[in-house]
Structures are given as structure tokens and as C-alpha cells.
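Appendix B. Chain record.
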Amino acid sequence: MKIFEGQLTAKGLKFCIIASRFNDFITSRLVEGASDALVRHGTKEDDIDVVKVPGAFEIPLIAKKAA
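C-alpha cells predicted for this chain:
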């Protein structure tokens, strides 16, 4: 039997997490979880940017600018 496993490493990469301020009680936990997962896979906290936008409509525009 062959077993294939990926090496999930994010060392040296930069990330931008964009979240809506609408329903902040939900999105704040999603941002915390995403940040935690990135750090556990090798990303430095300084390489993670978090951008809060008013609602879902603004997310694609900010994603384009962040890229």
C-alpha cells in the first residue's frame, strides 16, 4: 500500500486575511482560526495581514488590491 502525505508548510509566505465587520462575532473567530492555522504551519505572525471591511461587497476589491 502506498501512502502519500503532503507537507503543509507556509514558511516564507505572506498572507492577507480579509473579513467582514458584519457579523463580527462570527468573523472574528474565523480570523483567529485562520491565523492560528497559518502560524501552526510555519508562517510568522508578521507575515499575516488582517483587513476588516464593512461587508461582503468590499471583499473582492480589497483582495484585488492586496494581491
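Further analysis of this model is presented in Appendix C.
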